[in-house]
From TrEMBL:
This is Dihydrolipoyl dehydrogenase. GO terms for molecular function: dihydrolipoyl dehydrogenase (NADH) activity; flavin adenine dinucleotide binding; NAD(P)H dehydrogenase (quinone) activity. It is an enzyme of class 1 (oxidoreductase). The active site is at 445 (proton acceptor). Binds 1 FAD per subunit. NCBIfam families: PRK06292.1-1 (NF004939). Belongs to the class-I pyridine nucleotide-disulfide oxidoreductase family.
């Protein structure tokens, strides 16, 4: 067995791991990143990018399908499934290719193409192609990401069911598909397939759609998705069987009625689990929770007081791309500083689902608020001017502010172009902006953001009624 000694060893060459390696590289320290591949990152290879490419095609189809509303007749159009999926893959390969090239151009000293497991808090065992290597490191960063999970109902057919890892490799669109799970992956991909003409039906024993928690936003999301998609929420799937031409699914709906239907394909989108099972974490002595996952501080990313840091999806803090980048940098920087670890201030949370209408959560969710301390305001997009002009007028935005100092602290947003408005609000929350300060900002006409201003005015009204804000916080004056 060979032995290597480095300042930092990083397990996983995804977004988080690569960002950690950049910190070590910049500091001029010795480092090694260990990953068996495939390289290119989950986001670019099988996640963010191919799903957004698919959604881009679906949006084109959806626009054409709805053109008659604007007096435009489009005849003889069709979705060319193989061409749609070919573009998804070729653009995806371009994005993932840049990352792959970067990793493959690393100095051989910095990259080991194999899996790693712990043999102690400072040592890893790596079964490389030619030899087993013991890597001794002053500090170690775990950045192993997450993988799709298989629920009991799909265990018998798991090898034939698609997950987001396989779905973009399909040569053609199926005629029909059952989607298990109505989380972000399920609704983004399922709705896109539906807009491309696939007969999609969703199954979920629970009732959630996406991540909203505000009862009013939840109700509006259910109304919209029930109208455009076939959702079997609170359904009980009793059998899934492989048959000629696909899968036969038996289920009981929420009213207790039994159904059977055959689908050409199944997408399993029932959630993802941290990749820790083959890491031999018990040899590290770090604290683990009841699921065997490392307990870490979101601000230092340190696991207990060990020289071990954790970043990206595997940390379980915020499983999103920009958070994986940030966590990689924090974990990398703290691994270099160990034992003098620094607590970093995390950015305002921002989550966006690229559905139609879009879903976004900014800052605190409704469920995380202290309702004695905050008031809410809202705006419906059902009749919002620009949304009506564009024929995308539906949705509800709920905004939350503190009674004490009139500061915006969160929003749950369902409606058109929310990806942009969510950024405005996230930046405002991070800057500690008060609601009157936000209302005093310029807004053009006619734009979607006028809806946001209406919601902020409603929030200001609630603040005035609550009556705790100081006069200077209220900033009453022209334009407010
Ligand atoms: C379908 C889909 C759509 C998404 N869309 C979005 C989106 O639009 N916006 C957004 O912000 N986020 C999105 N995400 C989430 C985003 O992709 C992830 O948060 C992000 O990619 C996580 O990066 P990571 O570095 O933690 O993991 P990864 O990029 O998965 O990297 C982990 C690496 O660890 C390696 N590894 C695992 N175990 C070991 C081991 N034992 N030894 C060595 N190496 C190991 C793996 O090979 C892998 O290369 C999406 C995810 C999916 C699945
Ligand atoms: N636009 C984005 O930023 C984006 C897009 C895709 C994914 N992501 C990230 O990926 C993460 C994982 O997404 P996800 O959708 O896989 O997970 P999720 O946890 O958000 O959703 C899982 C869904 O499966 C349902 N479910 C659980 N058990 C089930 C069962 N037995 N049968 C049917 N349904 C079942 C849950 O109720 C839920 O609706 C997200 O949390 C998000 O961070 C982000």
């Amino acid at each position: 067995m060979k032995t290597r000694q480095v300042d930092i060893a990083i397990i996983g060459a995804g977004t988080a791991g690569l960002n950690a390696s950049r910190e070590a590289h910049r500091a001029g320290k010795s480092w090694v990143i260990i990953d068996p591949g495939p390289y290119g990152t989950t986001c670019a290879r099988v996640g963010c990018m191919p799903s957004k490419l698919l959604i881009a095609a679906a949006e084109r189809a959806h626009t054409i399908a709805g053109a008659a509303e604007f007096g435009i007749q489009v005849n003889d159009w069709k979705v060319d499934g193989p061409a749609v999926l070919k573009r998804v893959r070729s653009e995806r390969d371009r994005f993932a290719g840049f990352v792959k090239e970067t990793v493959e151009s690393f100095d051989p000293e910095n990259l080991i193409r194999a899996r790693a497991r712990f043999s102690g808090p400072n040592t890893l065992i790596v079964d490389a192609k030619d030899d087993t290597i013991e890597v001794k490191a002053k500090a170690i960063v775990i950045a192993t990401g997450s993988s799709p999970w298989t629920p009991p109902q799909l265990e018998g057919v798991a090898d034939d069911v698609l997950t987001s890892d396989e779905i973009f490799e399909m040569e053609d669109l199926p005629a029909s598909m059952a989607v298990f799970g109505t989380g972000i992956i399920g609704v983004e991909i399922g709705q896109a397939f539906a807009q491309l003409g696939v007969a999609i039906e969703f199954f979920n024993p629970f009732e959630d759609i996406g991540r909203f928690s505000d009862p009013k936003v939840v109700a509006e999301t259910h109304r919209s998705f029930d109208e455009q998609l076939t959702m079997h929420l609170k359904s009980d799937v009793s059998a899934v069987e492989k048959v000629d031409g696909g899968f036969r699914i038996e289920w009981t709906d929420r009213d207790g009625e039994a159904h059977t239907r055959t689908f050409e394909a199944i997408l399993n989108a029932t959630g993802r689990r941290a990749n820790v099972s083959d890491l031999d974490l018990e040899k590290t002595g770090i604290p683990l929770n009841e699921h065997g996952l490392p307990i870490s501080s979101p601000r230092t990313l340190q696991c207990g007081d060990a020289p071990i840091f954790i970043a990206g999806d595997v940390s379980g803090h915020r499983p999103l791309l920009h958070e994986a980048s940030d966590e990689g940098r924090i974990a990398g920087a703290n691994a270099l500083r160990f034992p003098d670890v620094q607590a970093y201030i995390r950015k305002t949370t921002l989550e966006i689902a690229f559905t139609s209408p879009q879903m976004a959560i900014v800052g605190n969710r409704w469920a995380d608020l202290d309702h004695d301390e905050v008031v809410s305001g809202e705006v419906s997009f059902a009749n919002q001017g620009r949304s009506r002009v564009m024929g995308v007028n539906e949705g509800l935005v709920r905004l939350y502010a503190t009674k004490q100092d009139c500061r915006l602290v969160g929003a749950e947003m369902f409606g058109p172009r929310m990806e942009h408005m969510a950024h405005l609000l996230a930046w405002a929350i991070q800057q500690n902006t008060t609601v009157p300060e936000l209302i005093a900002m310029p807004v053009y006409h006619p734009v979607f953001e006028e809806g946001l201003r209406t919601g902020l005015r409603d929030l200001a009204k609630s603040l005035r009624i609550a009556g705790h804000c100081q006069p200077q916080d209220r900033g009453e004056g022209p334009g407010v």
